[in-house]
Specification:
Length: about 120
């Protein structure tokens, strides 16, 4: 994989074309409560599918259930669902939230959800 700017859709697409699985992904932001990334899947050669993915970690500390953190997670999940993100439960204590985004809107969507998540979890 070659060096590129994180939100460079063309470089992401080139990485997906070179990938064995026809997909490329970049993590853009990460902390104990969430991870934000962008990616592209080659569903067909002429129609790549760009997406923004957010993982919401339900219990950052597996030994302690933090109800305040769970409430913030629920608020976040409701906001993301309202933004048309699909919500899928994962085995590793998190919920995957994903939405298809045109390549030209990746930066805008990333900035919007980053601002949303930082506001909720701060």
């Amino acid at each position: 994989m070659r060096e590129s700017k994180p939100l460079d859709a063309k470089a992401l697409l080139e990485d997906a074309k070179a990938s064995e699985h026809g997909e490329a992904y970049r993590t853009l932001d990460k902390n104990l409560n969430f991870r934000i990334g962008i990616g592209v899947r080659l569903t067909s050669p002429s129609d790549p599918s760009f997406f923004v993915e957010i993982l919401i970690y339900l219990c950052p500390s597996l030994s302690i259930v933090d109800l305040e953190a769970l409430e913030k997670s629920l608020t976040c999940l409701k906001e993301l669902q309202a933004r048309n993100y699909s919500l899928i439960g994962q085995d590793d204590n998190c919920i995957s939230c994903e939405t298809a985004t045109p390549a030209q809107n990746l930066s805008e969507e990333y900035a919007a959800v980053k601002s949303l998540l930082k506001a909720i979890f701060s």
